[in-house]
Amino acid sequence: NEEKENRAAELIIANKELAFQNEEKEKRAEELSIANRELKNAEDDIRKLNDELEQKVIERTAQLESVNKELESFSYSVSHDLRAPIRAINGYTKILKEDYADTFDTDGVKILQSIISNSKKMGELIDDLLAFSKLGRKQVTVSEIQMTDLVKMVTEEFVFEDDENIPEFEMGILPNAKGDKSLIKQVWINLISNAIKYSRNKRQTKVEIGAYTKDNLIVYYVKDYGAGFDMQYYDKLFGVFQRLHSQEEFEGTGIGLAIVQKIVQRHNGTVWAESKVDEGSCFYFSLLA
After folding, report:
1. Taking a C-beta distance cutoff of 8 angstroms, is the pair 215, 197 a contact?
2. What H or E segment, with its residue span, contains residue 34?
3. In terms of pTM, does the model score above 0.85?
4. Which residues are in coiled coils (predicted)?
5. pLDDT for 147-186, tens place per residue?
6. 38-68: per-residue pLDDT in tens?
7. pLDDT digits (tens, 9 = 90+) for 254-265
8. In what order do the strands lie in the sheet with 206-214?
9. HSE of 32 in the Cβ direction (CA atoms, 13 Å)?
10. Rounded Cα–Cα distance for residues 245 and 198 (Å)
11. Longest dimension (CA), the chain
12. What sign does the CA torsion over 90, 91, 93, 94 have?
């Protein structure tokens, strides 16, 4: 009897423990259910935020594209409309120089020459601005570019005076790449002409042109040993009308590198540079292989 009573007591305790465990399981199940609901609500909130963010990105992108198109249209209109008065100024100053130059004193001749020089610079600036604004409109026609042939063509098109510091071109292997041939030619023209221009005060002008591969990209470069620039002003380098040297030191409109960057970006590539003052610069740009 005593054994039966002990067994019964153990069963009662076991039943109580089982009941307690069941209660705990129910509590845990309820807590888990609440946690799942909260997680689902959080996921719904995140999904909603992502949808809102995507919509905002789409809207901002559309706004940015619209603003860029407006800026391109404005630049095109301004540069196009400015051509007529510049042509008029050039025409009148030509008449003054040819027909009335002998009526001017020394100061008058200097002033006339200054007008001619500045109107020429303005004409070049307008032409470059027009070229820059047209880049956003031009359709990119992609084909395989025979890069070595293209760069040889560019270097052979440069014309130098007899007394000029004629550059020495050192060209490495240039793998072919995919791109718009006419646009990439303009990139080479701008980079090589810059290398020549900023090296003209050196005893000997040397321009190195080469390439290397990185992942599925080809990185091309143009290196000179000329004036170079201070890297602390790097952020200004590819901006429109931005110049790191004075007009007196080196002529130019300040649009050439902006054109380079825009062309390379339209090819989904990147352009960058390295430089040291008085030691030269190296400009790089990447294209798809």
Report:
1. no
2. helix 2-99
3. no
4. 15-70
5. 999 999 999 988 777 666 788 899 999 999 999 999 999 9
6. 899 898 889 898 988 888 888 887 777 776 6
7. 788 888 999 999
8. 168-171, 206-214, 217-224, 280-288, 271-276
9. 6
10. 10
11. 145
12. positive
Measured CA to CA, the distance from residue 267 to residue 276 in angstroms comes to 28
What's the average model confidence in pLDDT over 101-117? 87
What is the SS3 assignment for 161? Answer: coil
Predicted pLDDT of residue 254: 73
Comparing CA positions, the residue from 285, 289, 257 lying closest to residue 269 is 285
Distance in Å from the first CA to the final CA of the chain: 94
Q: Which amino acid is at 288?
A: L
Beta strand 177-179 with 280-288 is unpaired
Query: Checking DSSP bridges between strand 280-288 and strand 271-276, what pairing results, if any?
Result: antiparallel
CB contact at 8 A, 223 and 281: yes
pLDDT band at 269 (very low <50, low <70, confident <90, very high): very high
Q: Tokens 């067994």 label which residue? A: 7
256 and 189 Cβ atoms separated by less than 8 Å: no
| Residue 165 β-bridge partners | none
Adjacent-strand bridge partners of 283: 222, 273
Only one residue has tokens 């002008």, namely 205
What's the rounded Cα separation, in Å, for the pair 44 and 31? 20
pLDDT score recorded for residue 90: 86
- Cα torsion 188, 190, 195, 199: sign: positive
Query: b or e along 28-64 (b: 16 or more beta carbons within 10 Å of the residue's beta carbon)?
Result: eeeeeeeeeeeeeeeeeeeeeeeeeeeeeeeeeeeee
Token pair in block for residue 45: 């909130």
